[in-house]
Amino acid sequence: MLSVTSSGTAQARSATLEAVGRKPDPTNLTELRREAEKSSQALADATKALEQRQATLVKSDKELKGKLEQLRTANLELSKMRQPLADLVQSLYQEPSGGDIAPFFNGDDDASLRALSDMTYLVSGRDEILADAGRLSQEQQKLAAEAQELRATKLLVEAQLNVEIDTLRKRSATVVKALSRTLVKLGVRVNQGGRSGAACDPTRVSSAAQYPNGLLPADVLCPLQQKGRELRADAAIAFVALSEAYRKRFGKAICVTDSYRNLGQQQSIFYRRPGFAAVPGRSNHGLGLAVDLCGGVQVFRSVEFNWLEANGKQFGWIHPDWAYHSPFEPWHWEYDPKLGSLL
């Protein structure tokens, strides 16, 4: 029999609701991104819990149907058992000599004994039928109670989970909207180029990951502050946050010469710069996770380069090992999703 969700699970979900309900700093992009991801994960977990509960209820419904089928079979068996008794009763009432009690008074000893035997059988059969009927009645009442409890539990649990899911969905939407507003204030034209605001939604990264390298559609790429530059949502948000920290240090945003490259652009650069560009379809530029920088960063061991090397990891951005020597590309920087997820 199902029971309402355990106290431990309920407390865990309450804690999750409370955690994602806290208002993040509306100017901190990293915190906003983290809160959006938390809300999205909590929503996914609650939805999964509802699906699991519904699967359990479906299984219980099948078990209940099985019990009801057993009850139907038992009723048929009882009817079969009653039939001989019913036939005997009918034959006694059809006796021309006066029915079932007449033989006791006609002086025929054999007939009297036979009638007495029939009456004993009738009484015994009646008692058995009453006992079976009582058991069946109890079984029916038990099954009815189980069905009622099952349906009540189903409605209660689904209602609780639906409320939680609705709350989490609203919370997730609120955080993503706050994130989009902050990006707009920082000069990111979130809806440019026919994109929807969802292009800068970090919870939709999985939709970008399903496309091949260099073939990401515009609606999964988030624009940067620099005109014409774009990255995957999580990388873009982290880069804008990094650029704002850079601005506080150097008085200007990070200079960007290249970001996402589609497959055609990768092929063009590969043929123009053999040995310095990745094989088309294998570049992190084609995943929306890499940028080429200027404004001083492209000069190895410049003040700008050293600052970015020291501070980039705080935002998930790194200068990959290969770019230090083979080929030597101080201007090339990449977003590490694993590192970014830990921030």
TrEMBL record:
Residue ranges annotated for the D-alanyl-D-alanine carboxypeptidase-like core domain, each copy included: 230-337
- Gene3D superfamilies, alphabetized: 3.30.1380.10
Q: Which InterPro entries match?
A: DD-CPase-like, VanY-like_core_dom, Zn_M74/Hedgehog-like
Annotated GO molecular function terms are: carboxypeptidase activity
Q: Where is the composition biased (Basic and acidic residues)?
A: 20-38
Q: Could you tell me where the Polar residues compositional bias lies? A: 1-14
Which key words are in the record? Carboxypeptidase, Hydrolase, Protease
Would the keyword Hydrolase be found if you checked this record's keyword annotation?
yes
Q: Where is this region: Disordered?
A: 1-41
- The identity of this protein, by name, is D-alanyl-D-alanine carboxypeptidase family protein
- Give the originating organism: Sphaerisporangium dianthi
Classification from the root reads:
Bacteria, Bacillati, Actinomycetota, Actinomycetes, Streptosporangiales
